[in-house]
Amino acid sequence: MMHTVLFIIFAVVCVAAAINLLAQRHPINSALSLIVVMGSLALLYLLLGAEFVAAVQIIIYAGAIMVLFVFTIMLLNAGEEELSKSSRVAIVFGVPAVAVIVAALAYILSRGAGTAALGDFIGGPKEIGRLLFRDFLLPFEVTSVLILIAIMGAVVLARREER
Amino acid sequence: MQTFAAQFANAHDLMVVMPMVMLTLFACGVLIIDLLLPAGDKRWNAATAALGLLFAGGSLWRVQATLAHQGMLGVSAFNGSVVMDPMAIFFCWLFLIATGITILISVRYMEIEQEDHGEYYALMLFSVVGMMCMASGKDIVLLFIGLELMAISTYVLVGFLRRDKRSNEAALKYLLLGAFSSGIFAYGLSLMYGLSGTTDVTLIGRRLAGLPESSHPILMLAVVTTLAGLFFKIAAVPFHQWAPDAYEGAPTAITGFMSVAGKAAAWALLLRIFAFALRYEQTIWMPMVIAVAVMTLTGGNLAAMTQNNLKRLLAYSSIAHVGYMLLGLVAWNETGIKGILVYLLVYTFMNLGAFAVIVSLRRRDLIGDEIDDIAGLWFKRPVEALLMVIFLLSLGGIPPLAGFYGKYFIFLSLIETGHYVLASLAVFYIAVSLYYYLRIINAMLMRPALDAEPIQPAFGLRLALWVTALATVGIGLFPEIFIRAAAWTMTAPRAVTQAFLR
Amino acid sequence: MPQNYIPIFLFMLVALAIPVVTLVIAKAVRPDNPHATKLMPYECGIDPVDTARARYTVRFYIVAILFVVFDVETIFLFPWAVQFKMLGWFGFVEMMVFLAILVVGYVWIWKKGALEWV
């Protein structure tokens, strides 16, 4: 019962923040809404019992990636957006398309997905550690190469003239 | 603790992934050596990278020897997350060969572009590590990480010519669309994991087959999203929009590398997913594959006819080639899969050869990737012009050349399975494709050169040209001898197809 | 499981309440008398010359990206640390391999001068 109530609260906060993200005209306001989205997602993970993922969500997404977002906004010096003329195509085709997709997904998920009680999974750092360092040892090591590539990519694409 | 270590990683496990370990070590070596080299002496980076390929080849050969010695269909390691079966080994060889040829092409080219940095070769080796993970992964986590490793290194390589606006634009487009498609692909994989509760592709296949009727809509969603991601990676219509821009803007050597090694890796991943995870879902994916194959053949061939940029033209032609390979998937029998693998092998040589010729057109003040730039090549460098004719005719599928054998097996598989309409459509598009290949040949042989600047291909480039040309002609003229000489070329596909379709 | 987090939820509620309460109280008790000079940004008494929202240098961006990347790396250290005893020397070697590859990258960006400011 408490689970369901908490789930509904955070789900509503999450969706509301996401809609606010789209509605805001200043990019910084949108970025701040995104933090709320990330935070409530983290709480939803927590409700599922995925403690580690919830922590990662806060540290990486609400922390590091949001820093990148805000830096980019400041870098571009993006100001208030101007409202473009509302496109008729978007209203005539876009809105029904969204409705159809949402309906189809809702139908598919409601029919197909098995149910699992909230808080059933065990996803603390201990369990993750056991999986990551034993069963998924090789993917873990390859991940370090992936991170190295990311470092190189950032430096290569943004490097200065040397000559 | 000893038993624990022995259970999860031992010498045997290390031997199986040794090719990847070697490549990683040498790529890190290139990065460090690059810091020590003086500015004008960067060729040692290429040499180190090439040495890394040799060592990787050596360790791959050891894996293959173990496999042959024990008469097994595959050795798995690291708790079953990686498996070196004949298909994986076949693809790994393909990646190593393609990378070797690309390095030969690159050395002088990157000097002309004044971007001869060590990162270039290191990124190439890292991307091969990713490709090998894609070819040998048996676990969707490893497959996905391999895919990202390859994709991210390729994004960076595409944008490597920082002074060139086209290169930057291409990298950005490729990155945005690529990340989007990776997301869709990951969504599909996560649905499959949710339905089956495992990350092992074999188990996924088995458990998906046993799902109750009520789960079928969500299974459909999983298959559709996974397929969309895969089709993007092999650049099939309608998921191909990134390819022409990325191919045109990338450094020409990298265009060749992407179109050959990157494509082969995407196919390795696709075959792995189809043959294991989606093995019993044929009724869901077959109509989609047929539709995409027809669209890809049509879109690729028709768009290629109107191109005036050589790299763009070859980009659309490579989309068209994917269409033929998809037909092998439609047939879905031993001949069809063998056809795809042979196609990828011969495509590696002929396409890299064609790109090597385009690279030779790049001179100090000339970008040299328009059809006008290749005009009159016959009067300047008859040998290179002749080799280009060979590559183009082979791409078109003219009989005595290697390209014919790729198409031959595909058509054979279509006829075996009774897809006569598709077969005749494919034959029609061969005629169309000859039109645009002959347009390039016409420009080379019949039109006068537009500029007087001489063309002097470097030694590495000439070597690459001869290797690819010899392979193109050799496979074409002596397919049987070639097969016997390089036994793995055909035993790998045969063993694989038997394992798949048993 | 969520029961264990009730103190944290309470903590968050208190944290949320403090700024809200202080702002409301401040609003209620302070004199409210704004005018143009008072609303101007204060820069040592000199009139500001330009807008404060100047464009940042791209250098910050590289730093931000490197921060994200190394942040992702540290995430892997947490599950390793809590399982350190169970994993033993094997886990230690595993993590050292992981870190060694990243140290190569670190040395490389350092020597490449990507961390230098000017």
Automatic annotation (TrEMBL), chain C:
EC number per UniProt: 7.1.1.-
GO function terms (MF aspect): NADH dehydrogenase (quinone) (non-electrogenic) activity; NADH dehydrogenase (ubiquinone) activity; quinone binding
Subcellular location per the Swiss-Prot or TrEMBL entry: Cell membrane; Membrane
Residues passing through the membrane, by range: 6-26, 60-81, 87-109
Keyword Plastid (UniProt): no
Membrane topology term: Multi-pass membrane protein
GO cellular component terms attached to this protein's record: NADH dehydrogenase complex; plasma membrane
Keyword tags: Cell membrane, Membrane, NAD, Quinone, Translocase, Transmembrane, Transmembrane helix, Transport, Ubiquinone
Catalytic reaction list: a quinone + NADH + 5 H(+)(in) = a quinol + NAD(+) + 4 H(+)(out)
Its job: NDH-1 shuttles electrons from NADH, via FMN and iron-sulfur (Fe-S) centers, to quinones in the respiratory chain. The immediate electron acceptor for the enzyme in this species is believed to be ubiquinone. Couples the redox reaction to proton translocation (for every two electrons transferred, four hydrogen ions are translocated across the cytoplasmic membrane), and thus conserves the redox energy in a proton gradient.
Oligomer status and interactors: NDH-1 is composed of 14 different subunits. Subunits NuoA, H, J, K, L, M, N constitute the membrane sector of the complex.
Similarity comment: Belongs to the complex I subunit 3 family.
Name of the molecule in the record: NADH-quinone oxidoreductase subunit A
Annotated organism of origin: Candidatus Korobacter versatilis
This protein's encoding gene: ndhC
